[in-house]
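Title: Comparing notes on inverse folding

I've been comparing how different people in this forum approach sequence design from structure. To keep things fair, I'm posting one structure and asking everyone to reply with a full sequence. Here's the target:
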């Protein structure tokens, strides 16, 4: 998965095959469309399989870690507030850009959806949303895939285990970290099948809607890039100059190695050691701040992924001609914010988060096939934005804690 060529080849083959077949095509009595549909559904099911344990274990360990940090208190509170702010702004930028440019317009695939899917997507009662957040039976919520209830319970449980005796806390942490690591391994295994999944899902969509689907796909790519640019070179410099009162030029110089690493690996976690070195050695932030903010940021401050997932959900709704109600739009923003604190910062982790949002809103999971086609390429950009987000937060926390030398000297930048 280090190179996107296999995904691009799969997409090109899907365009070719999908353009020469339709639902009635038969080869030796077998319907290629039906084969693609079955295999594509199996791939979606495989991704869905890890959603509940991956999201729950990620949120529980993340919340437990930030709540149990000995340095938490004032610094931890500021850290969480900046995480909350950057994630929320990323979501709002993604929502605004996708709503303004409507990359999924121009092709409607409503005719291939079931009446139940359309009704579910168009429904939205605020009281139902509230009731889903706090379910009466958490096991039933897990079984039904009630993601809002799952996220709420995971947040609550993650904090609660920090209040028990230390020996029980360690047991809980080890167990949930083990679950998280196991789910990551399963996710990696599924990602090896990503080219096949892209081919089957995309071929099915192109067989149904034709080559006109290529236009919104291209629109989605450049629209996502616009969102990333606005966040990285609009909001981040504004935050650094107005709130942090530091040199934006020195900041980008300091994190340049981390940016290159994030772009090449597509993983915020893989960039963690480089980010720590950049912020301590090149930016002049104390280890006391970096050791708390940077590791937490790789789990709780993936603003680029939050921005991308919001745009992906809106794009899919536009492609299928499903106009989200005001309640559904508010639900999307709230759910995207909650999910942003439980995204695994590894290649493919964002797909699970996008799938979670689609399930919450009742949107067709088949639309993930279009997003998958460009995901590996855009993953490099959103990982870069993630690094910009949590390194910016480390600068702001350090400045708010009275560290005056942050990005102020030129010497560390020359090392």
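Reply #1:
Here's my take.
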């Amino acid at each position: 998965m280090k190179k996107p060529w296999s995904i691009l080849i799969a997409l090109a083959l899907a365009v070719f095959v999908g353009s020469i077949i339709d639902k009635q095509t038969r080869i030796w009595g077998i319907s290629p469309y039906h084969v693609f549909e079955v295999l594509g559904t199996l791939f979606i099911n495989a991704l869905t399989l890890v959603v509940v344990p991956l999201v729950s274990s990620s949120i529980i360990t993340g919340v437990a870690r930030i709540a149990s940090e000995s340095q938490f208190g004032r610094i931890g509170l500021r850290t969480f507030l900046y995480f909350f702010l950057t994630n929320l702004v990323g979501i709002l930028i993604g929502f605004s850009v996708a709503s303004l440019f409507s990359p999924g317009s121009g092709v409607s695939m409503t005719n291939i959806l079931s009446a139940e899917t359309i009704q579910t997507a168009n429904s939205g009662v605020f009281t139902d949303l509230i009731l889903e957040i706090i379910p009466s039976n958490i096991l039933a919520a897990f079984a039904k895939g009630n993601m809002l209830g799952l996220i709420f319970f995971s947040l609550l449980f993650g904090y609660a285990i920090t209040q028990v005796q230390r020996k029980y806390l360690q047991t809980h942490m080890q167990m949930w970290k083990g679950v998280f690591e196991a789910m990551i391994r399963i996710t990696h295994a599924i990602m090896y099948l990503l080219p096949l999944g892209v081919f089957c899902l995309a071929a099915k969509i192109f067989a149904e809607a034709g080559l006109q689907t290529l236009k919104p796909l291209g629109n989605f790519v450049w629209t996502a890039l616009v969102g990333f640019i606005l966040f990285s070179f609009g909001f981040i410099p504004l935050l650094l100059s107005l709130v942090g009162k530091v040199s934006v030029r020195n900041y980008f110089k300091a994190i340049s190695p981390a940016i290159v690493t994030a772009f090449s690996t597509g993983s915020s976690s893989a960039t963690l050691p480089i980010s720590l070195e950049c912020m301590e050695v090149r930016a002049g932030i104390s280890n006391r701040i970096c050791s708390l903010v940077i590791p937490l940021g790789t789990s709780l401050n993936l603003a680029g992924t939050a921005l991308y997932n919001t745009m992906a959900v809106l794009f899919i709704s536009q492609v299928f001609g499903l106009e989200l109600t005001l309640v559904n739009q508010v639900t999307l923003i709230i759910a995207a914010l909650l999910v942003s604190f439980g995204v695994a910062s590894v290649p493919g982790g964002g797909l699970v988060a996008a799938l979670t949002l689609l399930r919450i809103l009742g949107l067709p999971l088949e639309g993930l096939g279009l997003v998958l086609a460009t995901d590996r390429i855009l993953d490099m950009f959103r990982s870069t934005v993630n690094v910009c987000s949590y390194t910016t937060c480390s600068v702001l926390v350090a400045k708010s804690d009275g560290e005056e030398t942050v990005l102020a000297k030129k010497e560390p930048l020359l090392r």
